[in-house]
Amino acid sequence: QVQLVESGGGLVQAGDSLRLSCTASGRTFSSYVMAWFRQAPGKDREFVAVINWRSDSTFYAVSVKGRFTISRDNAKNTVYLQMNSLKPEDTAVYYCAARSGTYYSVSRDTNHGEYAYWGQGTQVTVSS
Fold this sequence. Notes:
This protein is mostly beta strands. It is built from no helices and 11 strands.
């Protein structure tokens, strides 16, 4: 069982930066694929970014590639999402998610249905 707690959301202006954090409970954090998803009002939950267990494989949604960076610190049981050049369309509740796996490539781990563990979400609002 893994419990995830996100933090770092807030209200910012377009062009600003934010860093989200997600801290996991449990001793097996390093054996999980970690991802960020987001959900805007009235829209489906969408994939944002994913990172493999040892941080040598990442994958991003086209809409955030080049602006967002996912990273993790297994010693701290924490995954991060650095968000730069934020746009109003980035406004959403951001969720951290985890699934078991110690494989390399995570480019196919974009389906929210494949993730067993979820945080409660943190609101990110970007004003124009």
